[in-house]
Amino acid sequence: MLKIGFIGAGTVGTALAARLAGHGYSVVAVSSRSRASAQKLAQAAGGRVFDSNQAVADSAELIFITTPDDAIATVAAEVKWHPGQSVVHCSGADSTDILEPAREAGARVGAFHPLQTFASPQQAMENIPGSTFALEAEEPLLSTLKDMASALDGQWVELKASDKVLYHAAAVFACNYMVTLTKLATDLWQSFGVPPPQATKALVPLLRGTLHNIETIGIPNCLTGPIARGDVGTINKHLDALKQSAPHLLSTYRELGRQTIPIALAKGKIGQSQAKELQEILGQSS
Questions:
Q1: Are 264 and 228 in contact (CB under 8 A)?
Q2: 234 pLDDT exceeds 50?
Q3: Which residue, 48, 84, 222, 232, is the most exposed by fewest CB within 10 angstroms?
Q4: Predicted TM-score (pTM) of this structure
């Protein structure tokens, strides 16, 4: 059975180790800057806690480097690797180039990034099933990583090194900026006296419904709202209200609106003349 080690015992490392162990993979070694974190990972997935990264590398055949992204290259350069090993990082934005010291030592190198949001180890373990994993590797390691993704009840997509940064930027748009947009919405609710927790509770069903429509109906047909309808009057009312109460959000509202017009056109509910009118309104600077 393949012996797996983890260098780094944060949220991603702990969740992956526990899930892999739960599907029959053998986690044999773990190290971390925090011994307490390493012990938690070992409790969740098995394996021995070591005080050095080198000891993990010496004990395992496939080593996941699940440190913060900025530390991956340092770990790869400090550890003495050997031919026949596989070294894999879990960064979304970095390619396998940061594992070059391991490659030069004769090890196989790869990237295995779960396209998922991980706020805590427990939440991460719950979210992994169904996720897509971005893979970068050569055979035979690539097939091993594909098998792992499938074992974790996920899908996989194979990326080139040059794909990684845009892939990660896309994830930021879909995940992180959804949080930002929700925060902006809750801020607006405060203008009519509703505090953020209550506003968030009110908006979450709307967010869930939107995600459900994206998944089941798809883009562009899931688009609703004034731009989808070509409702110029409502857009003007929004702009007037934002000028009065939240002028700092005007540029954000306009840019998001402009980016939404092509989706509305693709849905087929507005024509070119309505799209042009919307562009003119949303393109005004004051």
A1: yes
A2: yes
A3: 84
A4: 0.90
- Which residues, including other chains, have CB under 8 Å from residue 207's CB and lie 6 or more apart? 178, 182
Nearest to 3 by CA among 193, 173, 144: 144
Q: Is the pLDDT of residue 147 over 90?
A: yes
Cβ-based burial of 34 (10 A; exposed 0-12, middle 13-18, buried ≥19): exposed
Query: Shortest CA distance to 45 belongs to which of 60, 58, 30, 67?
Result: 30
Q: Give SS3 for 135.
A: strand
Cα-based distances in Å from 59 to 3, 27, 36, 37, 131? 8, 10, 20, 19, 29
Residue type, 156: W
Kindly report, residue by residue over 66-103, the tens digit of the pLDDT: 999 999 999 999 999 999 999 999 999 999 999 999 99
What order do you get walking across the sheet with 62-65 strand by strand? Answer: 48-49, 26-31, 3-7, 62-65, 86-89, 108-115, 132-137, 155-158
The confidence score (pLDDT) of residue 175 equals 95
- List the single range of 124-133, 136-145, 256-265 with lowest mean pLDDT: 124-133
Report the distance separating Cα 90 and Cα 131, nearest Å: 14
Which residue do the tokens 């010291």 mark?
101
Length of the chain (residues) = 286
